[in-house]
Amino acid sequence: MVVEPLSTTAAAVVLNGLDDVAAEINLVAGHRNALDGRLVDVAIWLLANDGWKGTGLRKPEQFLAFRCGLSPASARRYVQVAARAEELPESIGALRRGELCLDQLMPIVRRVPAWADSQVLRLSKKLTVGQINAVINKYDFERSGPPAERHAPVIDDQAADEAELIATIDAARADASTENTSTSASASASTVPADTEHARSTMPKDRCWVGVGDDGRWRLHLETSPDVGMVIDAALREARDRAFRSTGSMVSDAEALADVANRSLDAIDDASRRDRFRINLHVRTDGVTADELGATLPDVMARHISCDGLVSPVFTEHGVPVSVGRSHRIVPDRTRRIVLLRDGGCRVPGCGATQHLEVHHVVHWADGGRTDTWNLVALCGHHHRMHHHGKLDVTGNADIAGGLTITNEHGIDVCLDGPRPEPVTGPPPAPVGKYRPPLCERLDMGYVSFIHPERLELIAASALAHSRGQPGVASRS
């Protein structure tokens, strides 16, 4: 394999066979992993310091996405890794050395407890991302975690085997939990057992995310408890059954969810509430139709949606919508829709918020400002509050590209530009470690085991006592 030196124009790599290709992939993968580790270090600094907040952005992932040109989801992963840097030094160190890729690391970051860091890492280097997800999502780390401090399981010669010992410890924990629950119930009906409180505190939080992805497709992501999930599943099954009874054809889950949403909107009786949740499309004079954020809709979709819709014309003068001047202080709905379409989200650079936006007068109404589009700008609630608390200043003409000036409380321009990558003049820093691809062999979950070091101490003590022929009692105070 011949690798020519990098220049400011291009880098050429001559590959003479499959061996060269494999070696080049491993080299590039190691460099990429190490560079991801450097971005994690940047995210660690952002979490530990506040100096970057003068830019008007409130989350580290927003700053990272804006400066690196990343999608919000990609930037969020670096921050998630950085948040666990102290708990997972071995796994994150492997990323820095180039030995583990970010996709392999993310399942570890999301679920693996600190005590299992090195154990999981040894296995993860040999597994594909899918296999790592399978192991970590199915493994019960709580069962293999530290033994309860208040329990003193008896370890006799029948408990030398590791599996039997762990079962004994867990049985003791369960018995003690039952006893504590009964005692608490007799003392006070409102007292919650400690184990129940622990379960509640460790239960994952419900999450729901909606938005448009980088490919223009609208997405819904939902993570919730099984009981809520069963309710949603029952509603989808009812919608599918309803569609089948009325049309005689099966519908998908997406179509069933749309039916549930339509019935919910149809049930709104109050006209003012119904207007708040109206779906607005923008039809230009050339016939192009766009949604509220300016994304163009296919003709067939636009025709379908607008077939049973109300048309509200917008008049323009010299290409600018005719506004209402000083006749209205509250921004009319029509003008508000024009501003939201023009801005496409919060106008503070790098913010990225597209929902729950507020329309702000650049020159305040009380100071003689007009309710015209040039004097109106879309801001998210956070940045709108920052402005009215003197932390952010907005001036200029909002209708002109680049006509707005946004400064912080010190008068410094907020994030005038986004990514500014340095030109490539040489190879990236060589990773300390060496990337080795996964084995891609069959994964047998039955042989996967992670055990807390304190449990290993109990196992070792039991095995030693058993080898001496003397049953012992292990207790922890």
TrEMBL record:
InterPro entries: HNH, HNH_nuc. SMART domains: HNHc. Residues 174-194 have a biased composition (Low complexity). Residues 174-202 are annotated as: Disordered. One of its GO terms (molecular function) is nucleic acid binding. Residues 334-385 form the HNH nuclease domain. CDD domains: HNHc. Pfam families: HNH. This is HNH nuclease domain-containing protein. It comes from Ilumatobacter coccineus (strain NBRC 103263 / KCTC 29153 / YM16-304).
